[in-house]
Amino acid sequence: MIEVRQLHLRTGSFSLADLSFTVATGTYAVLMGRTGSGKTTLLEGLCGLRRVQSGSIRLHGRDITHLPPASRGIGFVPQEAALFPHLTVAEHLAFALRVRRWTEDAIRLRVAEVADSLRLTPLLERRPQGLSGGESQRVALGRALSFRPEILCLDEPLSALDDTTREEICSVLASIHQTSGVTVLHITHNRREADRLASQVLHLHQGSVTQAPLAS
């Protein structure tokens, strides 16, 4: 469960104040809102990439408001995938595991498991410059999921993809959610994307988060 209470975040002259909302455990939540409304700022605050001015963030009852990113149990996929050009696909999938000091045997097994689930096994020795947009997003997802996070945060992961690839990655996301049960918070501008994936839709408007109706 994600519980945000009276959260205040600031970036430059822009700020969000008194944000409160809840996402139940196992929910696929989509956060929508106009460009510039603060969606990415909010997501970065949850992930520990932006300092919280006041308020609280609790994940599954644990207060993580001021914890460093690696201690929060959150997998994060930024908008542009942000793959490291010098690392292979296999090294990307192992990255978070090495940071968390998994053993080499455990890393090898988990990388193989994630690669198989995301159809990345034939690509393990490639570097990002040799990947398509859809392949890059699957690698970014694999990197975020490798350490079995409790929460998965996605910042417009499909915005740069063509329609066919977007549908492919939508299917991957739906499958990941169904099989893992991970709680997801996914930013998008695309209502069709939200209707395809979400069991909860949130709307950020003028500094408030409200519940939006699901498609009938």
What are the main properties of this structure?
33% helix; globular; 10 strands; 6 helices; 216 residues; Rossmann fold; four-stranded antiparallel beta sheet; alpha/beta; six-stranded mixed beta sheet
Instruction: Sketch the topology as an H/E string, one letter per element.
Output: EEEHEEEHHHEHEHEE
Rounded Rg: 17 Å
Q: Number of folding domains?
A: 1
Low-confidence stretches: none
Which structural class should the secondary elements be placed in?
alpha/beta
The CATH first-level class comes to: Alpha Beta
What can you see in these coordinates?
With 216 residues, the chain is an alpha/beta fold. The chain has one domain (2-212): Rossmann fold. Helix content is 33%, strand content 28%. The protein has helices at 39-47, 89-99, 104-117, 133-145, 163-180, 191-197, and strands spanning 2-11, 14-23, 28-32, 52-59, 62-63, 74-77, 151-155, 183-187, 200-205, 208-212. It has a 6-stranded mixed β-sheet with strand order 6-7-8-3-9-10, with helices on both faces. Helix 4 (133-145) packs parallel to helix 5. It is globular and about 45 Å long. 37% of the residues are buried.
